[in-house]
Write a structure and sequence with these properties.
The structure is a homodimer. The first copy, chain A, has helices at residues 13-30, 44-50, 56-64, 87-98, 121-124, 165-181, 196-209, 222-231, 243-254, 295-307, 312-327, 345-355, and strands at 3-10, 35-39, 67-72, 102-108, 128-134, 146-149, 155-164, 185-190, 216-221, 238-241, 264-268, 274-278. By secondary structure, the first copy, chain A, is α/β, with parallel strands linked by helices. The first copy, chain A, has two domains: 1-111 and 263-356, Isopropylmalate Dehydrogenase, CATH 3.40.718; 118-128 and 163-257, Response regulator (Rossmann fold, 3-Layer(aba) Sandwich), CATH 3.40.50.2300. The mean pLDDT of chain A is 96. Bound molecules: 3-isopropylmalic acid (2 copies). One 3-isopropylmalic acid (IPM) sits between chains A (88, 91-92, 247) and B (193-194, 223). Chains A, B: Catalyzes the oxidation of 3-carboxy-2-hydroxy-4-methylpentanoate (3-isopropylmalate) to 3-carboxy-4-methyl-2-oxopentanoate. The product decarboxylates to 4-methyl-2 oxopentanoate.
């Protein structure tokens, strides 16, 4: 039976970068891979078409799919919508609805792009870290939340941060197993000196760690982690943390790679069904101009084959093809240095397909 | 009448770096400045002496003082104490007790130390940003917090994030006024696309901003801010944010300065009474060896004269003296390059006093 992929291009550059990812899928299908795909709406595009950022049609298709490939959602067109139908709610909705609790964000420094980085070459050369962010708990979904009058009668806004033992256990298992396949070092990031949520987090991570004696576990406060990521990122192998700290640290770490245009991500459920997306946004400023960098989306296709379809061979081929086009000097605007020839989205996609 | 300074050296290197700051105070007093000081305990030292990290004696002295100078607290000796008496509770206690809601953390890149930074020189050359962190609200002090059984009967840890209108108003005023004295640009950092607390935060900041039409106000999500600080830090002038986001971003930003050993901070109440401290920790690994960098503590003395005593002239002199010793090539271990001669804590303190 064919593996079913649901494609959600999303907003602004989303459709442009996804078109290049589809070229990769087409090539693999032509080679005989048993895959098929269909398209759906998420975010602003879904609001435009069906009045909701995560409409029932998308929900149904997402449940039936084996994997989901997403472009990027959001943008100025939707900024003034009521919060409940803003594009972000589409992302948060699909994550929660499908139970995509494990967000894998590799940060890899491509030698060829060292010039594009704010960091000194020696700081990032050879960098290869994996940030594992819990994606369906924490302050993102905690109840109660809202507005109320505080003890002094003043209006206040409030949210609830929380993690339960099973939530921490399952992300911890993913983290230790990921570390086992890599350099066997796991750093758990929390704010245990201040937060009750973090105290439970740390307790449970330590407990789960007893089942993985081959992995060296360490703990770091989130403020220190934000500093160490910049000071000496190569000290890390796998980092595991909660939803909000992971949001912040993984975006920070993306800069170690030179450009956010290079970084894919995977969000997995308990069965390794996953949603794959570039970590960059919908880039309204360059939308419709054929300028966007499709590599993070193409690398997301690679992650899909690696994690959901268990085809490390194809993932490795895609990763290698991307490295090859970089070595060939192909550069979209975001990764080009002054004086380098800049190519467009399509040309970059074609180059990867050729390299494949 | 003499201005009263309470000195809280704290733990590990705290006493060593404070001894150098006192030399600066002694010089200024000898010059005729009307200041006097006394010593007290905070953190682990206070626990050792009086059984509590913020004991009544310190509380009384802190209330009576015009300003407080702190070294650094915490360390392995105290890590296994019950949470209620851990050194961090001393810091959190004094902040909350004295209403020190406005935490000013300048991040300045010293030209002389560019070699010590992970960043390319062009990224940080001339960098001068101010991070303003709200320090007495947010998830640090929110109630309820603790452990409970969730709807599924699983144990969970939880905390409450919250900000009230007056809390946001007062930090916003400090931020706009700081921006007015600088380059008139203020960036407010929140997570308004997800958090109710941030929605209120953003609303209030916009409202307060109407009273400061000369300041250009912008807003940024915290994940993006973590990225932009690394990508292009010079885009910022003043950043204002809540307690937990500020904790993370200011530590990240400290690395832009090359070493955390160079950065002072001020925590002010509504009357500009303040607690001044280096942002680095108590460095147990090098404690007692006379190696620690006292410059951040000495620069904290400068901030005290600037913000609480309204003596920008003395603050400028101290800042200039620190720059001069750097130009003279004086380096403690944390800011030295391979091959450079390393001096000790005392020698560095003496060099600043000589430069003064
Ligand atoms: C759009 C937003 C809700 C989302 C998040 O905070 O999770 C984004 O920043 C991300 O990291 O995917
Ligand atoms: C020690 C800790 C409680 C404290 C904080 O988180 O505020 C520290 O990290 C700081 O930034 O001063």
């Amino acid at each position: 039976m064919n593996k079913k992929i649901l494609i959600l291009p999303g907003d602004y550059i989303g459709t442009e970068i996804m078109a290049e990812a589809v070229k990769v899928l087409e090539l693999l299908k032509a080679e005989g891979e048993k895959i098929e795909w269909s398209f759906g709406h998420l975010g602003g595009a879904a609001y435009d078409a069906e009045g909701h950022p995560y409409p029932p049609s998308t929900q149904k298709a997402a449940c039936e799919a084996d994997a989901i490939l997403m472009g990027a959602v959001g943008g100025p067109k939707y900024d003034s919508l009521p919060r409940a139908v803003r594009p972000e709610q589409g992302i948060l909705g699909i994550r929660k609805d499908l139970g995509l609790f494990a967000n894998l964000r590799p940060a890899l420094a491509y030698e060829e792009l060292a010039a594009a980085s704010s960091f000194k070459p020696e700081v990032i050369a050879g960098l290869d870290i994996l940030i594992l962010r819990e994606l369906t708990g924490d302050i993102y979904f905690g109840q109660p939340r809202g507005r109320r009058s505080n003890a002094e009668g003043a209006e206040e806004g409030y949210d609830t941060m929380h993690y339960s033992r099973p939530e921490v256990e399952r992300i911890a298992h993913v983290a230790f197993q990921a570390a086992q396949k890599r350099n066997k070092r796991l750093c758990s990031v929390d704010k245990e000196n201040v937060l009750e949520t973090s105290r439970l987090w740390r307790e449970v991570v330590i407990e789960v760690g007893k089942q993985y004696p081959d992995v060296a576990l360490s703990h770091m406060y989130v403020d220190n982690a934000a500093m160490q990521l910049v000071k000496n990122p190569k000290q890390f192998d796998v980092i595991v943390t909660g939803n909000i700290f992971g949001d912040i640290l993984s975006d920070e770490a993306s800069m170690l790679a030179g450009s956010i245009g290079m970084l894919p991500s995977a969000s997995l459920d308990v069965n390794n069904k996953g949603l794959y997306e570039p970590i960059h946004g919908s880039a309204p400023d360059i939308a419709g101009q054929g300028k966007a960098n499709p590599l993070a989306t193409i690398l997301s296709v690679g992650m899909m084959f690696r994690y959901t379809f268990n085809r490390a061979d194809l993932a490795d081929r895609i990763d290698a093809a991307v490295k090859q086009v970089l070595r060939q000097g192909k550069r979209t605007g975001d990764i080009a240095q002054p004086g380098e020839r800049i190519i467009g989205t399509k040309e970059m996609g074609d180059a990867v397909v050729a390299a494949l």
